[in-house]
Design brief:
By secondary structure, the chain is of the alpha+beta class. 50% of the residues lie in helices and 11% in strands. The protein has four domains: 1-148, Beta Polymerase, domain 2 (2-Layer Sandwich), CATH 3.30.460; 154-237, Hydrophobic Seed Protein; 239-342, no CATH class; 349-397, no CATH class. The radius of gyration is 28 Å and the shape is elongated.
Length: 398
């Protein structure tokens, strides 16, 4: 039987306290899903989720008796969060589906590990491990698929997709992360056939999964595959036909500039240089006001890379100016923003009035002229600004 290799998370005291409380007196608890998968691959595991045969009320009773804090984060679906020795672990009672509509499921608690595994999406995610021994339970060939770099649905692919249409996007994301070679033909055909069902999902769920895909180290191959499969035609019809070239340039610039991946920067690169369409996308995906303004600003300044980057940053902000140049310019320009913040113009209207200019529109005009010259000279210090003020006032007097 396969066993988990050693990993830092496996020796944390909080996990062992939870395991001891839930395994006593006929109970059972196991590590499930991503932590098992990633540890088998030698990757760092972040969320250590647990599954148990015990119902939530019994889980809560046992943990509280062991002086472990319990938060009913998803009690209706059988999930609680345990906080032990500073670590947070989600614990979910085994379940099987009673009814699904592609967006949500009605579930019943179960006691059979295989039934719980059968309701999961992919074979590589249906792996369970004993928290003490590390012994792995694999009901559907997930370990073989993991070793082969094959991402495939458990059982009938169309049925799994019908249970939750978001699994279409999850298939592409997991294929990008863990797949090698050609996509599993049966699973691939099923997601293409079901792509119109993405329209039934909430925009928030679409946005969340899309940004996870775009945040991958190199999403270009899977983005191209999704475009070829008609996925973007359903959920992001604004996709720029030339986005593959833009995405190539962006990833090369990110690497050259040593800038970490950012999902919304990649999303901006997929869209045309059209602020109205960027805002349309942001609105449909229910993005925040800040994200909407960001996408519109990047779209509106994609043709502005000939302008010195600090001047652009003064107009639209450092982060947005950096991303404009990463998407549409050259990485070298980004270095001019390293450690730099947009300064404040070291003169105010009162300073102009103090020099004898009457309060009114003339003060605003002088300030605007001084600021324009200050920006054009790459933000010189207060002494130079004072000279600029004298020059502008002198011209007004003339």
């Amino acid at each position: 039987m396969t066993a988990l290799p050693d990993a830092e998370w496996r020796v944390r005291p909080g996990l062992h306290r939870i395991s001891a409380a839930l395994n006593a007196d006929g109970g059972a608890v196991k590590i499930v899903g991503g932590a098992v998968r990633d540890t088998l691959l030698g990757l760092a595991a972040t969320d250590i989720d647990l599954a148990t045969t015990l119902v939530p009320q019994e889980v809560t009773r046992r943990l509280e008796a062991a002086d472990i804090k319990v938060i009913p984060t998803g009690i209706a679906h059988g999930t609680v969060t345990a906080i032990a020795s500073g670590d947070h672990h989600e614990i979910t009672t085994l379940r099987h589906d009673l009814e699904t509509d592609g967006r949500r499921a009605m579930v019943a608690f179960a006691s059979d590990w295989r039934d719980d595994a059968a309701r999961r999406d992919f074979t590589i995610n249906a792996l369970y491990a004993d928290p003490e021994t590390g012994a792995v339970d694999d009901f559907f060939g997930g370990i073989d698929d993991l070793n082969a770099g094959c991402v495939r649905f458990i059982g009938d692919a169309a049925t799994r997709i019908a249970e939750d249409h978001l699994r279409i996007l999850r298939f592409y994301r997991f294929a990008a992360r863990f797949g090698r070679g050609a996509l599993d033909a049966v699973s691939h055909a099923a997601v293409i056939a079901a792509r119109q069902s993405l329209k039934s999902l909430s925009r928030e769920r679409i946005a969340d999964e899309l940004t996870k895909i775009l945040a991958l180290p190199d999403p270009r191959a899977i983005v191209a595959q999704m475009a070829a499969d008609g996925i973007f035609a359903v959920m992001l019809p604004e996709l720029d036909p030339g986005c593959s070239v833009t995405l190539d340039r962006l990833l090369a610039n990110e690497q050259a500039a040593g800038v970490a991946a950012a999902a919304y920067r990649r999303l901006a690169a997929l869209l045309p240089a059209d602020p109205a369409r960027a805002e349309q996308v942001a609105s449909r995906l229910r993005l925040s006001t800040r994200q909407r303004k960001y996408l519109a600003a990047v779209a509106g300044h994609r043709d502005d890379v000939a302008r010195p980057i600090r001047q652009l940053a003064h107009a639209i902000g450092v982060d947005t100016a950096r991303d404009v140049h990463l998407i549409a310019g050259k990485a070298a320009a980004v270095r001019d923003l390293a450690g730099w913040e947009v300064p404040q113009l070291p003169v105010k209207g009162g300073d102009i009035v103090a020099r004898g200019i009457a309060v009114g529109p003339e003060v605003a005009r002088i300030l605007k002229d001084v600021e324009a010259a200050w920006v054009a000279e790459d933000f010189p210090d207060a002494d130079r600004v004072a000279e600029l003020v004298d020059q502008k006032i002198g011209r007004t007097s003339d």
